[in-house]
Amino acid sequence: MKRIAIFASGNGSNAENIIRYFRDNPNAAEVVLVVCNKPDAAVTKRAENLGVPVKIISKADFQNQDMVLELLKEAKIDIIILAGFLLMIPPYLTEHYKDLIINIHPSLLPAYGGKGMYGRHVHEAVVAAGETETGITIHLVTDKCDEGAILFQAKTKLTHGDTPQSVETKIHRLEKEYFPKVIESFIRNRRQ
Architecture of domain 2-191 in CATH? Predict the structure, then answer.
């Protein structure tokens, strides 16, 4: 069974969904650690309520390669999942966990990706551009922002009446439905 660390910075709805999914489907993996860069982020309470240990690592501490890698080694982490983690992953991590870090992005990459494009910023840009569809992209993480190999995309239609808030609701539905399943599929396929 693979051991997952979730890196998150915010509310934690995706993190909670992934933790619950692997609790209900324990054959592939288990979430054993949540890493957060914001001590007051809601994800910390969600994880604690589900009995998953949380480690707070500041932005400055995140640059301490030895400390971070030792933490992940002690927890025997096989795979890292980014679920609303707002810091860039440093090269030492993308190197050490090459093709083992998965992110979800709230658009159909390569559209609306890159530095500063996360959460509400993406939805606002999609609405402002008058797009007729958007979606999610689940991809591997490299040292280049939002440029890793795409594992999966799901689309949703948009209407003229959509707002950034309504787009966000549609995206959250896709994330909840697909993110844990894609992680599980990725893990199972790597075993073959």
Answer: 3-Layer(aba) Sandwich (3.40)
